[in-house]
## 1
Amino acid sequence: MNDLIQLKQLLSIPKDIVITSHRNPDGDAIGSSLALYHYLNKGGHTVHVIFPSEYPDFVAWLPDAAKILIHDIEPEDSERFLKRADIIFCLDYNSLERIDKMGEVIMSLNTTTVLIDHHLYPDAFADFSLSDTTASSTCELVYDFIELLNDKELIDLKISQCLYTGILTDTGSFKYSTSPKLFRIVAHLCELGIDNNIIQDLIFNSMEEKGLRLLGHCLINRMEILEEHQTGIISLSREDYEAFDIQRGDTEGIVNYLLKLKNVKVAALITEQPKIIKLSLRSKGDYSVQAIATKYFNGGGHKNASGGAVYGTLQGTVQKFKNILPEYQHQL
Ligand code: 5GP
Ligand code: MN
């Protein structure tokens, strides 16, 4: 982290702080934001967490999730808090474009910003930045951040539950981007009392029946395997959204099922949203879906997990994705 001493000085006096994370917040976005929220609260700061859009139900149990402001729902309050903040934290995203209107507001202000993130190629917009693209999750970096500020003893059970949630979801329960350092952090969170069984159930075993039926539908009726390109595609139309009453978060994790196939290295979930076509891309090994998301789908993310969106039709976007695959064949 650059200028840590300066930031430490800033935080030594109670401040008005806003913590932001990206649209469609996932477990890491909300876990890191709430962990930092509880930590900063302990330092006597006045803290608000604001997301552009709503978070999924499987994280609603996290301590103080109910206090999070959603810009889509409460734009006036959200912007009022942003405007009066002394410091704005930007967690789990690498560009102000990822938070839509909130990003425009932040750009128009002269407020001190702090970036904590693990996505590739961060924009240079923040005054202080803790960016490590090798980190498993932003939660891992929030732990590092607290440690850098010499406050490790302030990490309590609530903070641990938040951090553990983001680590679990971003590593797919320790399947991706783990390291000895991460397991040492997790060991510390266990010592602080987190219950792995309970948290695993709250996050991964709390589906509604319609969610499991949707998964079945995706695998039986909407999955296409392109042997030549070692690629799997699942596409969902607006009609599927209606038939299965798909809500925010219901498609989370579906794309990963494609990677269970021995001969699949690249996976895509392509969904028809009200205004755009959204892509969730995953890969194994050195194959970079980040390159595809950035070059062709206005997106980005990580080497093995990226996303993007385009205007167009579902069929047209699926075809576009298929047409791109030969260009990346050498990565297989
Ligand atoms: P997911 O497929 O789960 O939505 O996202 C996977 C990864 O890609 C996440 O790290 C997420 O931040 C990133 N990502 C998803 N959608 C977009 C997007 O539209 N733009 C950018 N830059 N990154 C995205
Ligand atoms: Mn993350």
## 2
Amino acid sequence: MIKHNIWNPAAECMPREQIRAIQLKRLQSVVRRVYDNVPLYRGRMDEKGVKPEDIRTLEDLKYLPFTQKTDLRDEYPTGLFAAPRKEIVRIHGSSGTTGKPILAGYTRNDLENWSEMMARTLGAAGATEDDTIQIAYGYGLFTGGLGAHQGATRVGATVVPISSGNTARQIMLMKDLGTTMLCCTPSYATHIGETIQEMGIPLSDLKLRAGCFGAEPWTEAMRQRIEELLGIKAMDIYGLTEICGPGVAYECMMQHGMHINEDHVIAEIIDPITEEPLPYGEKGELVFTTISKEGMPMLRYRTHDLCQLNAEPCECGRTFVRMNRIMGRTDDMLIIRGVNVFPSQIETVLVSIDGLAPHYMIEVDRKGTTDSVEIQVEVNEGVFTDTVGQLEGMKKQISERIKSVVGISANIKLVAPKSIPRSEGKAKRVIDKRKL
Ligand code: ADP
Ligand code: ZN
């Protein structure tokens, strides 16, 4: 029999009417809060002729304006904060499109709520105070490490805040401390698993039982591989910095979709072109409205993640709707080694360098468990006749510029003029061979 560990049954198994009642009350209060405190929201709501008191039912959500990643960039660093600075007790951030991160501010209550969301997430994977949880998500501005850390602390587990990297040491502590749960990206989990295998450590030397993996897309095939390599149950977890970080949605033991923490966020699926809300079950763009956040509430944030919502009752007893695995993105954002990368950023760098033609191809691959990027770019006729030394210098300049603006290391390949295939329609500039 499957044990459906539920951290907070009063919240996670609420009748639907009760969830909706909480959602409406919180939505009304968050709309009031942003209208009164954030010029961007006030301006957009005024433009649409919507006042906070117009939100009378949950269906009225559709009258509220959308927000986007570009809004966070335009309002950098703190223009979307809705609480006075003295109430902001934490700032996190994520890679943005200009080399500057997008930032999120949290009040004390926000941190409490986020810890609760993450405690439910870990709880669903079976976490209790008897567990030792190794957090191998990066610690720092990135929400992964501290987000999982707070949830694990709330559960009362023994937390090992090792952060990512240094795989041999990860495995040593895993063995010596009898770590029972692991939190990291699915690609890092695979790498840890393969390293354990290479080191010839039998799984019987480890006490690992489950893991919570997210922050990047992965597949059922990858789940199987991780489960085999580590001898665990591998759970999918979803989140994004703009909404709070990890813990927005989490898988239960059914491993069939992620329950959305609906007392803290309202999820919608919209048609990305018409922007109209779609019924449950239809595939579209996932949009979130935060309803408990004070520091930086988000109204109808367009994630650009494609997915479906499932409102069927779940065997685990939770009543929160589920989102299925992310099926892709509506924009061209790539996630490379955990960094959000837009091809347009790379293009901006390339066109700023003398001697390069605006013809390029970005090839992303995954060797073992590490993403690699190769950028082929055409040089102009004049440059092509330069010496090897000059060309090497140019390559170095490009890769340094990309590293500093985009935040990733790329292998640069200079190619002859007119050698990159021209397209008659929309140019195809990205080849992603990772099969995600
Ligand atoms: P994080 O700090 O969690 O990486 P970011 O804001 O940098 O947050 O990135 C969020 C994006 O990461 C999401 O919009 C989504 O595209 C991707 N993501 C996060 N978790 C998952 C997951 N479990 N499956 C697929 N994609 C995910
Ligand atoms: Zn469930």
